[in-house]
Amino acid sequence: MNNIKLLVGRKRTFKDCTALVQKASVTGRRGDAPRTFTATLSDSEGHARLAANCAEGQTVIFYYDSEEEFRGLLMTDGRSNKKVLTLKAYDNCIYLCNNKRSFSYKKKTATYIFKDCLKKLGLKLGSAVDTKHKIGELVKKNTTYWDVIQDALSQTYKTTGIRYYVYSYKGKIYLKKRVVQSTMPILELDSNIQTYDMTRSIYNTRTRLVLKTSKGKKKGSTTIKDLEKKIGRFQEVESVDEDITSTEIKQRIKAFKLETGIVSKELKITAIGNMKCKSGKCIYVRMPEIDTKRIMFIEEDTHTFENGYHSMDLKLTYEKASGGTSSKSSKKSNTKNSKYTVTAKSGLQLRSEPNGKILATMSYGMTVTSDNKKKGNWIHVKYKGSWGYAHKSWLKG
Fold it and tell me: Is 157 helix (H, G, I), strand (E, B) or coil?
């Protein structure tokens, strides 16, 4: 099969079984671990049969265009009278998922917790970005290492508004900050998209949030009134520490509005394969047929290699928009530029789109320029040479 290479073995002894491959797939999902590899191989007397055995602790390495795209532990192998051999492997994050214990951390960052989990399991660390925020207390009983890491990252996001993700590459595990790449693939219906399916849902939408301590003391709340008038009342209650600060409360509320107080939209597409399109990464989608021309993050990806052809199935998330705001830009209210001052003491986030991905954080008291473009309650502003959107509630003009 063109452009691929498959090795199976252990330690320093590997067998090249590329010639046996009938079909191969690599799959990942953001927030889930690990990435998986599946393959169907010829298994007849007419070929040099592969001695695959997951009980031997074998490693699977898969290359595409000479680049390593997967390395992991063979966990399932099977043979049938159809004269085929099936393989399924998981990358090293499987050790985080398939090991349990109890955890207790106080005043530790998600970075510390991530490194500590890897150390306890004897896993190789690639690199880990400093998440900085110290979590008051994180206690988990009889849970997986993966769950405690994800809990720490979730609490960090709710307080800071910054997302991080964990991934495995060449046998090492990394903790990275989720950012919008400076360059990214472009997907278009007339170019590389073959099929698509867009859906909208309010099943997981909540219109109210109440923050309470373990003793039942209310620390904060918010209601998305416009959305509640349309769909009715749906309330979420979150537990917070007794010593939570006002800044942290504001960030919790902001995160709620971005993640839960919205009408969710997702787009599924099948397209010509591009290995730059992986879960956690972003792409630019240009599809006027469904009013979409924007940056989108990849939630799930499956890359399939068969008969010399590479295709991919992607599940994409729209930039969050409360009440289903259109992606079209509103018209200029004035051709003259305006000046605004940032009034958020904790800083104001500049985003790619309204409720979109964070591009930068503008400091309190900073003066920014606007071209007077607006999208609902969001104002188009320029900060350090980059244009984006900021909420008008924290801008004084």
Answer: helix
pTM of the full structure: 0.71
Instruction: Report in angstroms the alpha-carbon separations of 65 from 18, 87, 172, 275, 352.
Output: 13, 21, 21, 10, 32
DSSP run (H or E) holding 56: none
Q: Is 309 helix (H, G, I), strand (E, B) or coil?
A: strand
Residue 148 gets which letter from DSSP? H
Residues in CB range of 182: below 8 A, 6 or more apart: none
C-alpha distances out from residue 165 to 70, 110, 158, 248, Å: 17, 11, 14, 21
pLDDT attached to residue 48? 65
Amino acid at site 198: M
Q: Hunting for tokens 């995160």 — which residue is that?
A: 255
Report residue 20 as tokens: 């046996």
| The two three-digit tokens of residue 338, written as one number | 């305006």
Crossing angle for the helix pair 110-121 and 145-160, nearest 10 degrees? 170
The token pair that represents 293 in the structure block:
């021309």
For 36, 124, 336, the CA distances from 68, given in Å and listed in that order, are: 14, 18, 51
Number of other CB atoms surrounding residue 269 within 10 Å? 23
The tokens for 334 are: 């004035």
Cα 137 from Cα 156, distance rounded (Å): 12
Gap between the Cα atoms of 162 and 360, Å rounded: 10
Burial class (CB in 10 A: 0-12, 13-18, 19+), 148: buried
pLDDT tens-digit series, residues 232-263: 999 999 988 888 888 889 888 988 888 888 88
Dihedrals φ, ψ of 17, to 5°?
A: -115, 25
Q: SS3 sequence, 335-366?
A: CCCEEEEECCCCCEEEECCCCCCEEEEECCCC
